[in-house]
Design a protein that fits this description.
The chain is α/β, with parallel strands linked by helices and 390 residues long. It is 37% helix and 12% strand. The chain has helices spanning 17-27, 58-63, 77-86, 101-105, 109-115, 140-145, 167-191, 201-205, 210-216, 254-264, 274-290, 295-302, 315-319, 322-326, 370-376, 381-388; strands at 8-11, 31-36, 67-71, 92-95, 120-125, 195-200, 237-240, 246-249, 309-311, 332-334, 342-344. Strand 2, helix 2 (58-63) and strand 3 form a beta-alpha-beta unit. Helix 1 crosses helix 7.
Length: 390
Amino acid sequence: MGALDGYKVLDFSTLLPGPYATMTLADMGAEVLKVSSKDKYDLVVNWPPVIKDAEVTGAQGWLGRNKKTIFLNMKKEKSVEAVKKLVQEYDIVVEQFRPGVMDKLGIGYEALKAVNPRVIYCAITGYGQNGAFAMKAGHDINYLSRAGISYAAGRKQGGPSLYNFQIADVAGGSMNAVASICAAIIYREKTGKGQFIDVSMQDSVIPFNSMDGASFFAGGPMPERENGQLNGGEIYDFYETKDGKFMSVGSLEPKFFAGLCKAMGHEEWADGKILKTDCAMVKAEFKKVFLTKTRDEWTEICAPLDSCIEPVMSLEECSHDEHLLSRGMFPEVEVPVSNGAKVTQLGCPFKLSECPAEYKHAGFPEGYHTNEVLSALGYSEADITEMVDK
């Protein structure tokens, strides 16, 4: 039994934040029904490559995991009617349109609340439901830029730097949606009341300013690139090795710094006092020492020290990593509508001892369950054709 068995989610989201959130809910047992428009292009669904011997891309196979999927043209009256029928059962709704779009379609929070007062309605947007930027378009890079994160990230000479990861989308929008929905479920269990959830991806990354942010608002200095303890201003950083690869050094605490000094051949600095007087010199010396050996040599040297010094690994290397495999982070998942194909996917990070995440199947081709779901609601073939047409 999954943690969310018995809960049903109607998913109107596209791209990454909403689909990742609802996939996480599905991994924990919720029944998720994805509603898509037949003629609307979704960048993530169509992200290459297509899985061999299957009808879905790797991204769709991942984000569609454990879900059913239907097509509906929400500009058709019967489609609006169908959603109102569905929300009697699927009483958790996730959408990712700009504010007001779902209202114009006739399936916004108030309209669905009138049908089912217990509905939990989660709207994920870039800038939230109100405020000067509420109607503005944005992507992950924009939310980080307007949240103060990018300002202090990167290098003094090179400027801000990109991670190959959508921080605001997933760590912000997706995970806050999951947490908020679970909190709203608990509240509904206690009171019988549903509610509206406003998840803003920019709001979500404001706390990611973390220690520097808390210090700044308490009278501390403005965070700047390479001037803080955690953004390259001190020893916490990446260091190039002899073979052009990198090691990551997070040796902040005194005992970890002592281990780093041992690896670097400078045990005379192990008490850490020199960091108060000449940290720049120490870091420059460490950079030189790291260049004398390959990444793998340093990995072997540093492993027994347990001092928060680790190699910067490629995704391919991670996929074969003994630790991550033991944690089940790269499960083999069966691909439906294929000749028995299986695909390696990114696993669920939620580890619950009594009700672990389950990977029932990878994503179906978009719209695959349209006839099954709509006919069960009483619609004829002719009705269904009308409801999904452009």
